[in-house]
Amino acid sequence: MSEQDILPNKYSELRGIYKSYIDTCNALYQLKTENEEELNSIYKMIKTELIDSKKYHPRNIIYDILKLIEYNNRYKKSYLYLCKLISDDFNIKFIWNLNVSIHENDTIYRAIMENDKERFIALTEGYSYPLLRSSLYPYNSIGYSLLELCCYHGAVDCFKFLRTKYKSEIYNRCLELSFLGGNPEIMNECLKYRKPDKWCMTYAIISHNIDFVAFLRNEYKIEIDLYDCGLFNNLEAFLVYFDQTNDIDNCFIYSTMFNIPALCEYFLSQGANINYKNQEEITALHLAAIKNRKEVVEFLLSHGANINEINEDGQTALHYAASNNSKETAELLISHGANINEMDEDRKTALHFAISSGSKVTAELLISHGADINKKDRDGKTAFHMAADQNSKAIAEFLLSLGANINEKDKRGLTALHYAASRNYKEMAEFLISHGANIKTIDEDGRTAFIHAAMQNSIETVEFLFSHGAHINRKDHYGSTALHYAALGYADETVKFLLLHGAHIDEKIVEEKLLFILQHFKIEKKQSKF
């Protein structure tokens, strides 16, 4: 009997061993109830199988649940209820403040969510809806059409109406989202016009529908993404991949994301290399650090994992832990000799990663163990620059208490105040100036923070900097002022403010922009008479 002939039995064996884990994750990702009794039952499964078993830290489960809302937002209140139960039991604070008004009564989005065809028809009569951009849905810079939202929610009646009356065209995203919505009729209709892609597989994995995963793999030869399996806790899809490929080394690497040391040990027993690297030169230790899998990290280190192994970008496991606020894992890695000031290809240290991701607790840990706060990356940015760029006031304050230079320049001559101004972080700008930031400092192009704020139409910060003495007509090395750049970007609010406060109009401004400015100037002059 060949090795491939044995694999299905191995799959069944592993599926049986981890049945409780798989069932718990399926209950969470396939949640379709608002009944408190049923939710309490699901929480009991989560607590027993994931928390009490030490597979997950309660904080990480809350994070995963909050992230899950965008893929199953009809049941956002149910997910928040589960988070509240975890929060109360383990004294963990969490914040979730997304705008849910789009799903309130009498909105077309509520009608789609509930597949209320009659209400949907009434709301579409005589009105054209723009693409929806909302953090309640998976990130999409363009926005979602009504047909795409029908696919997401599995609203088959509304879907059919749009197709029949408005001839709404099916695009790739419709098919992709249908694997989240899970309605067979919608999916089959989309498949008539579009071919599945890797995003279909990603959403099938997120939905924890093993039939969808198998369908895409068997019918369309789309590979199961092991990283997605680990990221969205889909062990069953992971085992299907193992069943079909017998890819011991890659399965070993990604098995660490489930925080089940016994599963990692299984693949090692099958001959996996503890320091094996995938195509991106990522090791098992890197992935364990991403998801704060402390127990697995301990297991890997005890079996000879190289703690300072780097990926193709020169990043170690400590970089990964820092960028994902995996404090416990970072602490463990440091205690086992991880190089705390190791730099990647961009000369970024773990501290840079921690601050860039807003991981204050991990940043404090790194600094307490000797991380250099003055290290500069390839662009000359220090940890303090990054704190300002991320609007992390608490981290900035902490770094200042340790002696960080508030007026330090990067390679382009930018200070922390320049970064705060360009991103319209008014409170950060206030903090910096109150602690000694020089408002007159210029970058390599001769631009002050005030000019940067105007360039980005950061109106609140423009007003604040002006009130603290910023020179409104200062020119950069190219002879341009804040008004020039505001006009160039058609920044209405900033242009109005600058004109009202003495900005000069000169020949530097091209004719088209001059007309734009003069129109505003006339408006403001008229308004000033009353």
Automatic annotation (TrEMBL):
Cite the InterPro entries for this sequence: Ankyrin_rpt (IPR002110), Ankyrin_rpt-contain_sf (IPR036770), DUF3447 (IPR020683)
The residue spans of each ANK repeat are 280-312, 313-345, 346-378, 379-411, 412-444, 445-477, 478-506
* UniProt protein name: Ankyrin repeat protein, putative
Q: Which Pfam families match?
A: Ank, Ank_2, Ank_4, DUF3447
Query: Where does the source fall among the domains of life?
Result: Eukaryota
Q: Does the keyword Oxidoreductase apply?
A: no
SUPFAM superfamilies listed in its UniProt record: Ankyrin repeat (SSF48403), Pseudo ankyrin repeat-like (SSF140860)
Which terms are listed as keywords in the entry?
A: ANK repeat
Q: Where is the DUF3447 domain?
A: 166-241
